[in-house]
Amino acid sequence: MPWNNMRGNPPQWEDEFFPLKEFFHNLRNFFRRGLRLLGLIPIIILGLWLLSCFYTIGVNEVGVIQRFGKYVRQTPPGIHLKLPQGIETVKKVKVDLVYTEEFGLRTIRAGIKTEYAPPEKFLEESLMLTGDLNCAIVPWIIQFRISDPYSFLFKVRDVRKTIRDLSEAVMRQIIGDRSINEVINKREEIAVLAKIELQKALDEAETGVTLKNVELKTTNVPAPVQPSFNEVNQAIQEKEQMIYKAKEEYNKAVPAALGEAEKIIRAAEGYALDRVNRAKGDTNRFLALWEEYKKAEEVTRRRLYLETIQELLPKVKNKYLIDEEQKNLLPLLQLQPKEEKHE
């Protein structure tokens, strides 16, 4: 009978509840160990917190330390110590890294043969109006590095957007002051000027960056107006050719004409000087004769007569001497020798 088992072996229900009893026993042991582990958690947290006092700055970096969000100092490359996390934080700025911003193009893959995205997607950046009211596509890139980490982090809210906005404004202003031919043919000159003007704007905005390079890529006109632009360029080249030929002819003819004119002017000046000198000489001689004439009128008169006869006689071919007191004519006196007849 069942009650007879009370004096013998334990009933079977104790064996059935043994696993449950073991479970509660293990649970009690777990909580006992957990309480001991909970005591270690603050120690672990404290250790990690103190470990945050150490930090490393890379070779090409500068560390910017903030204490409760306020700028405190900068640290050079190496291992440094700061107040724990939550009190002081460090921001690492790569000051030797060269950053690149592209306008009117995007690089898909850089290398020996660089691949670019289709430029049609970025026309709003590169399409500009020139000074002679032509449309030009002007893609360009700028390269810069961070020279002042403090200004770069704290003076401007969005440095990248500011750099892009200023770059577009400066480039559009420069392109707007030049003709389409200058934009296409003088890219290097425009790039140099853009670098100078953009650096001024970046310094005024206190961005903390220094430009390394500004490079204009291939500039051109939009595809729809390319044929008309080529025709205009051809007409301009023909015009310049004709102007060059005209200048060449001018340079040949005008110097020769100027030389001939100079020669004639010099000859005229020489002739005028000679005539003036002769007139002065004749005047001085006449005045001298006049003085002599006043001193001895008869002698001077006779001398003038003889000088005149001496000057005129060689020019007369046939000469006749007549005695004014003789009534009949004298035989002809041959004063010049007869010309010998040569057979």
Q: Your description of this structure?
A:
The chain has 343 residues and is α+β, with helices and mostly antiparallel strands. The chain has 4 domains: 13-51; 53-94, no CATH class; 99-221, Tetrahydropterin Synthase, Chain A, CATH 3.30.479; 239-320. Helices cover 51% and strands 17% of the residues. A 3-stranded antiparallel β-sheet has the order 3-2-5, with no helix packed on it. The chain has a 3-stranded antiparallel β-sheet with strand order 6-11-12. The longest helix has 70 residues, at 226-295.
Query: What's the number of extended β-strand segments?
Result: 12
* Major sheet characteristics: 3 strands, antiparallel
Radius of gyration: 58 Å
Give the termini distance in whole angstroms: 205 Å
Global shape? elongated
- Tell me the name of the CATH homologous superfamily of the largest domain: Band 7 domain
Q: Structural class per helix/strand content?
A: alpha+beta
By DSSP (H or I, 4+ residues per run), the number of helices equals: 10
Quaternary class: single chain
Give the CATH class of the largest domain: Alpha Beta
> Which spans of ≥5 residues are poorly predicted at pLDDT below 50?
1-13
| Amount of beta strand | 15-25%
| Strand arrangement, major sheet | 3-2-5
CATH fold group of the largest domain: Tetrahydropterin Synthase, Chain A
User: Mean pLDDT, as a whole number?
Assistant: 81
CATH architecture call of the largest domain: 2-Layer Sandwich
Helical content band: 40-55%
Order of helices and strands: HHHEEEEEEEEHEEEHHHHEHH
Number of domains: 4
